[in-house]
Design brief:
Oligomer: single chain
Helix content: over 70%
Shape: globular
Distance between the termini: 79 Å
Number of helices: 19
Length: about 425
């Protein structure tokens, strides 16, 4: 019997060994094909550059030196991203990037194009905060348990034995908490300066979340700003600290953390406004009572039953979010690294497009609205620098302004905010 087991094991071992050898051969072949492809691309780029420079010599006004340099840099970055590095794939790092794609496709795009000096750091920063959000959002947890888990979470960021079997209100979030050890392992490999930033921001965010759990809701507009600071403004501040720690951005930007805070507030308030139907269905209430009370005693009553008051309240929420965008523009003007600019600018453009979509739109009270995939792709493909960002924003703003009804007071407020955005550009 033992001999039979041994034979079966040998057969299985040889079978798996051959499968591995075949896979390695296929990987090497793919690697060679990519190397050949990148060489062809490089040759095409050299020819393209030679033609472009001839046009420059001819003084063609449509061709500028800085445009050429930018295009060449973008192509070279693309070529570098194709290269397969001859290093062992880190199972935990691979898990983190796969999980990032599952929990946030939009952030996956902008994180993957980041400078390698901070790409892994920001991927882990995002997943750590996603895990924290998962605890905050889980309706199954009672208040005492939730507060305890949140307050202690920063102590477990690098704990490779930390996991939870049944926390999360979505399957991907549950799975992240079950396999958090992968995130912890990569966190422990980061430079200590990045670990410290992530730990400090996570602790502050968790403490802020607990403050609002114990308050049982958001009352004033001041509270609304404070809550959004805790859950999103701190992210903007932490990211800015990472940018500076990597030396990719000038330390002077640390003097403008109020702008970094506004970057987070704009994104968070856009999401809170857009996600009305989903949040109310899950008994999560983030719209501030100070604003809601002007239109209703219970804004949850508008779910699948909107009226004129509901639309006015919605537009007030949009205006509140829109008021932060001029500071977002000021922040983006400070950025120097092109990959960081894209990382920061693309979500802001998408958020502005989302606000335009939900403005005066009763569908918000029925479903979770999102801009189309086609529009998302267009934004990603066109937002490479501040000039292109400016063109995109101007187009959105003019389109939005053309749809306004000047007779409505709320619309007049919106028009004023849109005009301020154009001036800030």
């Amino acid at each position: 019997m033992t001999s039979l087991k041994s034979e079966n094991f040998e057969v299985l071992y040889e079978h798996e060994k051959k499968k591995r050898e075949k896979a390695e051969a296929q990987l090497e072949e793919a690697n060679q094909n990519i190397i050949m492809s990148t060489e062809l691309i490089k040759e095409a780029v050299r020819k393209y550059e030679a033609i472009y420079r001839k046009l420059l010599q001819l003084k063609d006004p449509d061709y500028k030196e800085e445009n050429l340099n930018e295009e060449i840099e973008l192509i070279n970055n693309f070529i570098n991203s194709l290269q397969i590095k001859n290093t062992t794939i880190d199972e935990s790092l691979e898990y983190c990037y796969n999980k990032l794609e599952k929990v946030s496709r939009s952030f996956t795009v902008v994180i993957n194009q980041l400078n390698p000096k901070i790409k892994d750091e920001i991927c882990i920063f995002y997943l750590v905060l996603r895990a924290l959000d998962t605890i905050e959002d889980d309706p199954k947890l009672n208040t005492d348990t939730k507060v305890k888990l949140l307050k202690n979470f920063h102590l477990n960021i690098g704990n490779e034995n930390y996991s939870h079997e049944d926390i999360g209100d979505e399957p991907d979030y549950v799975e992240l908490m079950q396999n958090y050890s992968h995130v912890a392992r990569i966190f422990n490999k980061l430079d200590e300066k990045y670990q410290k930033i992530i730990e400090e921001i996570t602790k502050k965010m968790a403490d802020g979340m607990c403050e609002f759990i114990e308050m049982k809701g958001i009352q004033s507009l001041k509270d609304y700003d404070q809550y959004c600071h805790y859950v999103a403004g701190l992210v903007g501040i932490g990211l800015t600290q990472i940018f500076v720690a990597s030396d990719l951005e000038d330390r002077k930007i640390m003097e403008k953390l109020d702008l970094a805070n506004s970057m987070g507030l704009f994104l968070q308030k856009t999401n809170i406004t857009r996600d009305y139907a989903e949040d109310v269905e899950k008994k999560r209430f983030f719209w501030p009572n100070e604003l809601c009370s002007k239109f209703t005693l219970d804004y949850g009553e508008f779910l699948k039953n909107p009226n004129n008051q509901a639309i006015d309240l919605l537009n007030s929420m949009v205006n509140n979010a829109l008021s932060h965008f001029t500071q977002c523009i000021s922040y983006l003007k400070c950025l120097q690294d092109k990959t960081i600019f894209k990382f920061c600018a693309i979500p802001q453009v998408m958020a502005l497009s989302t606000l335009q979509l939900v403005f005066n739109n009763e569908k918000v009270f029925y479903e979770n609205m999102k801009i189309s995939r086609t529009e998302s792709i267009e934004i990603v493909s066109q937002c490479f620098n501040f000039e292109q960002f400016k063109v995109l924003i101007e187009n959105f703003v003019h389109k939005w302004k053309n749809s306004l009804d000047a007779k409505c007071g709320l619309f007049q407020k919106t028009e004023s905010l849109l005009n301020e955005i154009l001036l800030a550009l």
